[in-house]
Specification:
CATH class of the largest domain: Mainly Alpha
Helix content: 40-55%
Structural class: alpha+beta
Number of strands: 6
Order of helices and strands: EHEEEEEHHHHHH
Number of domains: 2
Strand content: 5-15%
Mean pLDDT: 95
Shape: globular
Largest sheet: 4 strands, mixed
CATH architecture of the largest domain: Up-down Bundle
Radius of gyration: 17 Å
Low-confidence stretches: none
Distance between the termini: 27 Å
């Protein structure tokens, strides 16, 4: 398998989850400016030109981070990366995956936008993202991870997105349960190995 990524992007969650699944894979870095890799034109891998993308051994390519996470979990059910398909717990997990994707990931994307000034971004972070952080912090005050006391693929995605806070000057220090979660994740071998592979520092 090949995982196509850009340093510090949302591909980190897929990488962490692949490592948690014990899967062998090759990391292929994408130059976002030129849409190229060491293999050549990235558009030949996915016409979207976005990361992450997971190229399977049979040549099929899966895109969209949330879908990749579910594929990894379903291909390695013994690892317990997501609850079994069709169960009540699975739908709870999907709720969290979609919350991170739409309420947090998309919100952070706004803060990375070159089309907004610093003041507008600060107001957005306080007025929109603040309540989301509060929701996550309250939930994590009652459990170590999103689905309880066991790591899941949803935690990899949440961790991935929250690592962006420093890059967009969002202060999470007041959210003590989020801080404890990030420290807990930093201690996982899969996270340490993934950060090292991308040349990143722990949160």
């Amino acid at each position: 398998m090949k995982l196509y990524f850009a340093t510090g992007s949302c591909g980190l969650a897929s990488q962490i989850t692949l490592r948690e699944a014990g899967q062998d894979f090759e990391l292929i870095k994408v130059d976002f400016k030129t849409k190229t890799t060491v293999e050549g034109d990235y558009y030949q891998v996915t016409s979207k030109g976005l990361v992450p993308a997971l190229k399977l051994d049979d040549g099929d390519v899966i895109t969209e981070g949330v879908v990749i996470l579910q594929w990894i979990a379903d291909k390695n059910p013994e690892r317990g990366l997501l609850p079994a398909f069709g169960t009540k717990d699975r739908y709870k997990a999907l709720e969290w995956l979609n919350f991170v994707a739409t309420d947090l990931h998309r919100g952070f994307a706004t803060l990375f936008s070159p089309f907004l000034d610093a003041e507008s971004k600060a107001r957005f972070a306080t007025g929109s993202l603040g309540s989301r952080f509060g929701y996550v912090n309250d939930h994590l005050s009652r459990s170590d991870y999103l689905l309880g006391n066991q790591f899941s693929a949803a935690d990899a995605y949440l961790y991935n997105v929250l690592t962006w806070a420093g890059r967009v000057k969002v202060d999470l220090s007041g959210y003590t349960s989020i801080q404890a979660f990030m420290a807990r994740m930093d201690g996982r071998p899969s996270v340490r190995a993934s950060l090292e592979a991308e040349g990143l520092s722990p949160s």
